[in-house]
């Protein structure tokens, strides 16, 4: 397990060190992020899911376990945080997003590929296909209710349709379901182009950790990180194993995906809502740093069957 996770942690640390020591400028990281997340990563998602064998891959119980845990934790956090954590009612939805939105693609996918096998890629893509859409919609709706504003469904839908990562996932699914096969030279070209996607994504993640400093209410940041790294994966484990009796590999996939740190996109949504930016940014940093300890701990617990 150490040999699988060490390269991933090393890449993140290298990205942080590069920006911390001035070896790479923030403007360079910004341009590299545009190329990686607007082109390389969407193409990576597209070609891999378009060519994956999805026949009989997942059952409805897998989706119920994953999305049931995420939605339950989101709603409970949104409802209880104003009274228990003294958050503003208007920012409760954003706090809940920072406590439940997982960095599934940049962190979860490389870990699962390393621990299990590259064949897990198709399963991960299917499971997370509605992850961003569901949580972003829930955040926008509850934030609008809390602030007495009207939820702009049209703007939300346009934003989703313009998201390059979602375009890559859904277009890949369409091609797969239509049974379209690419010529070998096209497939080989796309695989070659997208080969650096995961490596660059981890490097950029490390560089961004320097940008998103810990600031704001440390109590709220710690609370969001605990919910994200411990409570959410625990609820997922209880549903996946205790309720739906899924096999051990699927349980591991679901737990790792929900045990991932808070995704940077949660900060973008917080900025759009103009609420809780410092807490979400702090949660991104703290949960990412702590996940270097908590994710291996979850993997060890699952490997030795402590909960199974």
Automatic annotation (TrEMBL):
The membrane spanning regions, by residue number, are 56-80, 92-116, 122-145, 165-186, 192-210, 222-244, 250-270, 279-301
Query: Which keywords, in A-to-Z order, does the entry hold?
Result: Cell membrane, Membrane, Transmembrane, Transmembrane helix, Transport
An example GO biological process term is: transmembrane transport
Give the record's membrane topology: Multi-pass membrane protein
Which Pfam families does the protein's record reference?
A: Mem_trans
Q: Name one GO cellular component term.
A: plasma membrane
Mainly localized where?
membrane
**Cellular location(s):** Cell membrane
Q: Which family does it belong to?
A: Belongs to the auxin efflux carrier (TC 2.A.69) family.
What is the name attached to this protein's record? Transporter
Species in which this protein is naturally found = Pseudoalteromonas piratica
The root-end lineage is: Bacteria, Pseudomonadati, Pseudomonadota, Gammaproteobacteria, Alteromonadales
């Amino acid at each position: 397990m150490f040999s699988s996770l060490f390269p991933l942690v090393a890449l993140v640390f290298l990205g942080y060190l590069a920006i911390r020591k001035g070896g790479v400028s923030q403007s360079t990281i910004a341009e590299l992020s545009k190329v990686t997340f607007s082109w390389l990563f969407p193409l990576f998602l597209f070609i891999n899911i378009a060519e994956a064998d999805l026949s009989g891959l997942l059952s409805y119980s897998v989706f119920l376990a994953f999305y049931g845990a995420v939605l339950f934790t989101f709603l409970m956090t949104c409802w209880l945080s104003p009274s228990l954590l003294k958050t503003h009612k208007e920012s409760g939805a954003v706090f809940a997003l920072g406590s439940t939105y997982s960095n599934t693609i940049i962190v979860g996918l490389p870990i699962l590929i390393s621990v299990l096998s590259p064949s897990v890629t198709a399963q991960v893509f299917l499971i997370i296909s509605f992850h961003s859409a569901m949580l972003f919609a829930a955040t926008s709706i509850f934030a609008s209710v809390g602030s007495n504003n009207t939820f702009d469904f049209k703007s939300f839908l346009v934003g989703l349709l313009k998201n390059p990562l979602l375009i890559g996932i859904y277009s890949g699914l369409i091609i797969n379901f239509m049974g379209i096969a690419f010529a070998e030279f096209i497939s080989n070209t796309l695989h070659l182009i997208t080969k650096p996607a995961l490596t660059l994504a981890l490097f950029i993640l490390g560089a961004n950790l320097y940008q998103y400093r810990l600031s704001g209410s440390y109590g709220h940041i710690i609370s969001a990180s605990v919910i994200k790294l411990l409570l959410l994966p625990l609820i997922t484990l209880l549903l996946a194993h205790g309720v739906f009796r899924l096999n051990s590999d699927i349980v591991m996939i679901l737990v790792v995906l929900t045990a991932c740190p808070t995704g940077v996109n949660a900060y973008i949504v917080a900025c759009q809502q103009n609420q809780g930016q410092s807490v979400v940014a702090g949660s991104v940093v703290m949960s990412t740093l702590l996940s270097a300890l908590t994710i291996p701990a979850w993997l060890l617990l699952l490997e030795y069957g402590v909960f199974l």
